């Protein structure tokens, strides 16, 4: 007996593409901000990213200032996975928009999604699962990190929409 092939609906494919593209761009953009702000405020390019690994390594991750596979790679992977998670939600909300979003509309909705992510990160999320960057960065720098996250989401959404339109 042959099992039918799993197929994704057009909306599911569009959501997945938008989530992966937008999440990746949001991760890259916000990590660049983490590095620049970390160098300025903590004297380390990777300390804010290392701090993200505290969900596994505990609070001692906040003290690691140099690049390590244990902290930096896990911290970045965690941040990237979180970006993909939020971008998939964002993508699901916007994947079936017809006509496609304009750049200002994509930026506004990405800003709203990012504000929600930030609110969840710092209110209902347990301490152990919070991002951890706040241990190295000022609120102003956190604003820059989340702002670049929103720009990455919007850019990724617009890029994915172009790809969806060509199918």
Task: Give a written overview of the molecule.
This is DUF1440 domain-containing protein. This protein is mostly helical. It has one domain (15-165). The protein has helices at residues 10-42, 47-51, 54-57, 69-94, 103-122, 139-165. Helix 4 packs across helix 5.
Short description:
With 167 residues, this protein is an all-alpha fold.
Strand-helix topology:
Blueprint: H1 10-42, H2 47-51, H3 54-57, H4 69-94, H5 103-122, H6 139-165
Helix pairs in contact: 1-4, 1-6, 4-5, 5-6
Sum up the structure in keywords:
167 residues, mainly alpha, 6 helices, 0% strand, transmembrane, transmembrane helix
Strand fraction: under 5%
Strand-pairing-aware structural class: mainly alpha
Q: What is the typical, i.e. mean, pLDDT?
A: 90
Let me know the largest β-sheet.
none
What sort of overall outline do the alpha carbons produce when their principal axes are compared?
A: elongated
Determine the number of helices (DSSP H or I, runs of at least 4 residues).
Answer: 6
Unreliable runs: none
Helicity, as a percent range:
55-70%
**What string gives the helices and strands in order?**
HHHHHH
Distance between the termini: 32 Å
Quaternary status of these chains? Answer: single chain
Radius of gyration: 17 Å
Strand tally, please? Answer: 0
Number of domains: 1
């Amino acid at each position: 007996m042959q099992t039918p092939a799993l197929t994704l609906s057009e909306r599911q494919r569009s959501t997945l593409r938008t989530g992966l593209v937008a999440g990746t761009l949001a991760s890259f953009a916000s990590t660049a901000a983490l590095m620049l702000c970390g160098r300025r405020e903590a004297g380390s390019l990777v300390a804010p990213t290392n701090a993200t690994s505290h969900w596994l390594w505990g609070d001692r991750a906040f003290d690691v200032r140099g690049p390590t596979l244990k902290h930096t790679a896990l911290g970045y992977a965690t941040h990237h996975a979180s970006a993909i998670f939020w971008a998939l939600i964002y993508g699901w909300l916007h994947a079936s928009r017809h006509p496609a979003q304009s750049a200002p509309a994509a930026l506004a909705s990405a800003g709203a999604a990012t504000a929600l992510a930030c609110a969840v990160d710092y209110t209902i999320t347990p301490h152990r699962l919070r991002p951890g960057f706040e241990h190295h960065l000022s609120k102003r720098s956190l604003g820059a990190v989340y702002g670049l996250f929103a720009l990455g989401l919007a850019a990724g959404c617009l890029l994915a929409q172009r790809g969806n339109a060509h199918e």
